[in-house]
Every structure is written in structure tokens, then in C-alpha cells.
Protein 1
Amino acid sequence: MKVLVIACHPDDEILGLGGRLIKHVKEGDEVNICILTKAYEPDWTKEYISQKVAEQKKVDVFLGIKSRINLDLPTVKLNTFPHGSLNKLLQDVVDEIQPQIIYTHHPTDINLDHKIAFKSSLVVSRPPLNINVLTFETLSETEWGYGPFSPNIWVDITLEIDKKIEAFLIYESEVREYPHPRSVEGIRNLAGKRGAEANFHFAESFCLIRGYNIK
């Protein structure tokens, strides 16, 4: 199976579904990641920007990611980029990869980039492509937004939680101290909560937005 993650920022893919991606790779699935934005000067330093590039490469090797596509649009400024042009860029990615499943941001996340990514993901996956679309929760974005994240899919990541945290720690520029949500404890706590909802030790949860031939 071919999997495509459409995420706005490097580390979103780990926070939201690092455990699920590890399971996909274990199961022999092809995992592809499309990151929509990048940091830019002068808001971020050259050193920070270079660090983000290096971190992504390390994560891909660590997890066994098939490919990573970076669209390099300005981060936190997707609303300034023509929506139709974003759809075209993403459609080209989908046409190239031909995924059976897309994971993307939840529409009620507080981050505007995330909302736009969700809308574009629906556009590029609409029938007759019949691509399964699921949204994930992103720590410090989903729970800080206004609106529900009511999952209807839970994935047991008890065997993957430690590797997920190791992958997150590769993104040194994003790691925060607890009680910030983007911390080791924050990740483990959320996974424990989602696990308890489904009688697992640790889990990641998703909202199925579109489903075709789900088994």
C-alpha cells in the first residue's frame, strides 16, 4: 500500500502519526511525506533553516521513509499563497505517488496552515480517485483549536511508542520541556490517553473523513 502524509511543518508527521508510520513500514507499505512549508529569513536564522533540513533527512533514514517532497512554501503564510496553485502542486504529488491513503491535519487545528492543508487534501483526493483520507491530531495545535477532534479510528502503538519518541527527539529544534505538549512526556501522555480509550497501553487516533474499501 502507498501512504502519503500531507503535513505543513517538519515534525508534524511524527507528532501526529509517528507510531502509525512505523507500523506502515513494518507492514511493508510505502510511506511518502509531503511537507508544504519551510522556515525563511529573516524570521528564522540560516542555522535554524539548515538544521530543519538535516533533521528531516535523519528522520527519513531512521523510519525508513520512501520519499519526502518539500514544497517550500512560506510557513505560517499559506493563506497568502493562491489556493488553486497549492491544489495544483499537491495534485502533482498525488498523481506521482498514487496513494491509497492520505493522512493530513484536522480542520479545527488552531494553525491556519493546517486548515488550508486539510482543504487542499480533500480537493486532491476527491472521487473518482477513491483515496482514503484520515486526519491526525497535532500536539499544541489540535487541542488548542476551537472544535472537536472526535476520533473513530485507534491504532495500537504500544510496540512503537519508544521509537516514535526517538524520532521526535531527532527534531531537536522542536523539543520542549514538559509541561509543554511538544515534549516527551506530552507525547507519551496523549498516547496513553488514546490507548486507554481503546483498551491499549498506547495508541494514536484518527478521524476517518473518507473511506473506500476499508478492511
Protein 2
Amino acid sequence: MKIVLASGNKGKIREIKEAYREYEVIPYTELIPAFEIVEDGRSYQENAIIKAEAIYERLKKRFEDFIVLADIPGIYSARYAGEGASDKENLQKLIGELKKHRLKSAPAYYTAAIAIASKEGIYTVHGWMHGHVIDEARGEKGFGYDPMFIPEGFDKSLGELESDVKRELSHRSKALKLARKLLVQLEDQ
């Protein structure tokens, strides 16, 4: 089975390919030109569904036996510092907000909503990781907000943790494990 990712984020693509080594995993932009998808849902789940359905509709006319997997990290997290902002700019804006409110840290969580679009329908799963954000970036590993997020029960940021530890804790890994169960069921149909 071919899994088509509704993402161009290199970090996400790498993470999902590692999690699903037994499948052929490719970003949709290797099959069709990138196009803008208006993610105007009011929840992670709604935006994941919007993204998966939009790409599935464009691909189903050209390909058979594939599934679209859309992973949404946060409704506005990629655009937090403005349209087209880099990971570093988003990180700096969040650090600035914490400092503006004189906070050294604040409770936070990561959530991942994954929508799976196939000829059988649309399915969604969620994964969560709780912890707190700090007012400085620590570590070079990971991407996005990882250098300032400390998972519950740890004293290191995700940017400092080894990838195998991060993978076990990750909200995306948790959602991908749940999605795998659905993929197995869809394969058997």
C-alpha cells in the first residue's frame, strides 16, 4: 500500500517514514504539484480532515490503492510569527511572549491529529504529549518548538533528547501508532 503524506515538512516526512518503514511513504508533492489548502477548521481534527480530503480528491483520479495521511501539529503553530515564518522565528516569538509575561516556563502540550483518507472513508486519531515550554531554546535536535519544550517527567528539552527517546514520547508517534492500527484494518478490507 502507498501512503501519501499531506505535508511538505521535511522533519515530519522523515519521522513518518521511520515509523512506517514497511510502507511506501511519499509526500503528495512527488505526485502532483503543491497547492494551497485553506485550513479553516476550528480544531486539529477538522484541519487534518480538510487537508486529507483535498489531497485525496486530487489524487484519486490518477492513482489507485493509496491512502492520504494528514498530520496537523497545531491550528496556527506553523504561522505563529506570521505567514511564511521560519521555525526559528516562531520559536523566538514564543520566547518573547513568555519573557513579556515574566514567565520562566508555562504548561504546554503537543497534540497531533492524523486524518486518514481512503476509498473506505475518513478516519482520525489523536496523540498527546504534556510538559512545559521554557523561555530559552536548548539543544539542536528536532524541529519546530522542540528546543523549548520539556516533556513531563524530564529536565531536558526535546531539542536535547536523543531521537529514540523523543520518538517514544512524541505526540506524533502516539498518533502514528493508533493510525497504524487503522492502516492494518484498511489493508485487510
Protein 3
Amino acid sequence: MKRIFLYIMTAAMTCAITACDKTKALDRDTDGGATPEVPQIYDMSGFVKGADVSWLTEQEYKGKKFYDKNGNETECLSLLRSMGVNAIRLRVWVNPEGYYNSKADVLVKAIRAHNLGFRLMIDFHYSDTWADPGHQDIPAAWSSYTIDELQVAVASHTKEVLQTLKEKDIPVEWVQVGNETRTGMLKPLGDVASGNFTKLLNAGYDAVKEVYPDAKVIVHTDKGNDMNNINKLFPYLKAQNAKYDVIGLSFYPGNDEDVNDPSWQTDVTDCLANIKTLIETYGKDVCICEIGTPWNAAWAKSVMDQMYAGCKQIDRCIGLFYWEPQCYAGWNSYQKGAFDDSGKPTNALDCFAITE
């Protein structure tokens, strides 16, 4: 990597938290010196204007540069901070192939984010790779486990990752126990209807509270504009006495095949209505944990402006996290970042610059 990160970790800590091949990857992003003293976070209150930047270290290592709207090269997290982003979301996988999204990678990004005053959400996938409604695969090391053993593994993994952050005095404000878990997690054992997902969720909840007693535990599902979809999960959790604090939603409005399709307007209206219904039905705060629009859609700014304003008007909606806004030029085939093909921010996140 041509540019050495400002935030670094000791070689000893690196060896302790990752295997040798991952240690080499970590060394790419650090200079091998002493870990900097982590300052106190700037603010832990107010409406959340967040970004999931889990791809960032990989982008930087592979040479991606980021520029402000005037074309000046700027470190990405500092740029997002200047744009009004006040919270960062980071995903973690159990034993990923390679380095990225590992515990070590999460720690590097969390230190950097914390040193810039960001609030922090950790998103546990409980998989070696992506977890979503269609893919909730058990990590290879856990493949022979019973449901009881999986509960122990969930608790152990959760505590291990969070304790690594706590040892660096990094506050964690929110923790997702699972990612887009409409169908459950750690499938096929952790399905929703049987109650096994609730067992896993409760194990994760207790583990979070053991390390960070004040952290809010989030249950996250997809398609925030579709109440029929949402109802495939939360009524079961209520009946099964599941333990969680916040309902998290993903929301990707519009038609992926046609950026000129005006359906995004109905999607926004439905999502905001669903947030209100969820608060009234379950008595929980709600967070838009993921939102994104095609980067070149003429309506991208309108979606964000309307969602930002609408969510702020709902008393128990805590905020929004844009998913991987720093992605551009078709990074990993993802076209819903908030940067243009030259690596400069679009106007999609202008609403985040609005002062409280």
C-alpha cells in the first residue's frame, strides 16, 4: 500500500488476533509501531447519520483514492466526517478466506473511526462470508455443532470480538446479532419458526451485554418497505420472548433494472409507514441499518433527503446508515455507492451535512 495508515497496531497484538497469513495482510495497513492512544469519542448522542465502510481497507490496499468535491485527495473517513457522517458500521465474519472482515481488520477500522470521533456499530454475520436471507451458512469450524453448541459458539465469538475492541477503550454503541436474519441464521439449524433463531439471538444478546452492558442489540431484516416480509420475523420473536433492543431494516428503493422507474417514491412512503408501525407494535427503536441507491440515479438525492427528514420526524427512529457509500467505479460490481466514477462524493449524502 502506497500510503501508510495513521492508525497502527503492534506486531505482537497482530499475531495474537489473527493467523500468520492474515498478519501479513494486517502489516500492509500498518507501520508496525506502537498502537496510538485512543482518544474519547466526540459525541454519543443525537440522530445517527451513518455509513457502513467495511470494504474500505481492501479498497485502500488495492489503490483506491478518495477526493472531496473540489477534487482534492482526502483520507476517506476524514472526508465522510466532513460530510456530516457521525457513525460507522463494520461487519465481521468468523473465519473469512483472507484478511478482510476478520476480527483483525475490524479492529484496524474501528481504531481509525474512533480516533475521528465516530460512533460505532458492529455487524456480526456469524458466517465465514456474506450472510443475508438467501445465505446464512454455518462457519466451517462450527459445521458439526448442535443447536446448543452453536449457542455457545455465538456467545464466544461475540465476546471475543467485542472484548478486543473494549481492550482498546473503543465504545460500541450498537451490535447486530446477525445480518438480514428474516429466515434465521446459522441455517439450517437456526430457523425462525422452530425458535432456534431466538435461542441463538438470546445467546448473542447476553454476550453483548456482558462486554458492553449499555450497547443496544439490533435484530436486522431486509426489505424495509415490505411489511409482509418484515412480518416473517418479528411476530415470531415476540411470541418466543426474544431479547433485543432495536429493530434494524435494510432499504434499497427503486428498480435495479431501470433507474428511471418512479417506484422509489412508493417505496419511501411505505418504508416510513412501516417504521411507525413497528414502533407502535413492538415498542422498540428502529434503525435503517442499510440504505443505498444507484449512484447515478437522478432521484438518489431525493430518496436520501426524504428518508432523512422522514426518519427524523419519527420519535423512536434513531437514524440511517448508508451502505458502502465510498464505493465507486463498479467496485465489486456494487453500483449503489454515493461517490461518482472519479472518486468524488455525489449529492446523495448532502442531507447528512444538515446541522442539528
